[in-house]
Amino acid sequence: MAPSHVLRCCQRGLAWIPVIFIALVVCWSYYAYVVELCIYTIPSTGEKIIYLVVFHLSFIMFVWSYWKTIFTRPANPSKEFCLPKAEKEQYEKEERPEAQQEILKRVASSLPLYTRTGAGAIRYCDRCQVIKPDRCHHCSACDMCVLKMDHHCPWVNNCVGFSNYKFFILFLAYSLIYCLFIAATVLQYFIKFWTSDLPDSHAKFHVLFLFFVAAMFCISILSLFTYHLWLVGKNRSTIEAFRAPVFRNGPDKNGFSLGFTKNIAQVFGDQKKYWLLTNLDYIFLFPTSSPFFPFSLPPLPPTLPLSLYPPSIKFSLSPYPYP
Ligand SMILES: [Zn+2]
Ligand SMILES: [Zn+2]
Fold first, then answer.
1. Whole-prediction pTM value?
2. Where exactly are the structural domains of the chain?
3. Exposure b/e, 70-106, CB count within 10 A at least 16 = b
């Protein structure tokens, strides 16, 4: 095996360490809450049952959304964004960047592309050999171009983007509920152990730590969750929040915004009953890459300025087949 291959395998293995760490913390929190707190510490049967039911509901939703965020493959650009064979050969033979841009422009004229590089050129990934659709970025960790890339998250060892952004937001929401519920219900026993109202036992260590860990995670998740809700409301990815996308008329940080309600629908879907779960269309139509993306958009004639178009047809980058 080539040394570079071995190195790549090692990197891939090491990338799972944060996920394993989170999984171990979650397993311990389950044991500490269910066994040490509910079974050994809480005297009232009624209280025990209520706590266990609510705990398991939040635990299941948290683990499910975490699982989906980790194991949903990032969506890649569809084959329409690859250069046709003749143009590809021409592009590879050509050494002058201006001539390469001309080839890209010719191919891109039939694609619904609105964004450009900072210098006004067609965005092209040399590594994946593909014209980058709007909001698509190359992730060096995943070594692929990812549609509507938000960021590469080490805690889920996956790219957060078009295919799993909703799962990521739900993961933040459910992990926040999970930690808040633990912190709120453990607090009174934490105080009782701290003030020695409860006798010293092996449960004491677990209960004290359970409160500290849950409170610590609450604070860090809350800030991240609030930031991402703000991004959803503005229809911006984390990358776009740091660097405004460049359109034909120049950079515009609000270029993808369709208005608050539609921005939310782009991530969560337009059926409110699925907002906290998932949409079956989403599972069946977009397991890897979207056949609709982004061809559900009517192409814009290049002569008209972007601002003349009604917002409803400006950008539809939702993982759902409806705008
Ligand atoms: Zn790429
Ligand atoms: Zn990535």
1. 0.83
2. 15-75+162-323
3. bebbbbbbbeebebeeeeeebbeeeeeeeebbebbee
